[in-house]
User: Fold this.
Amino acid sequence: MTQLREQMIRAMELKNLSANTQRAYLAAVTGIAKHYRQSPVKITDKMIEDYLLYLKNDKGNAPTAAAVF
Assistant:
């Protein structure tokens, strides 16, 4: 397990997020990292916005307000 993943899991556990929510968040980060073929650490805010628009416009997945903020 990478250090970033461990940090993310720890932060989610401290916020008392459910196991399902944690899996969904980890899957979302994995999805964007695969899309850009780089570490999530190197992904900018603009890249996240572009990815959310890609999901909405090209894949038909509308991001929720929580995902944007």
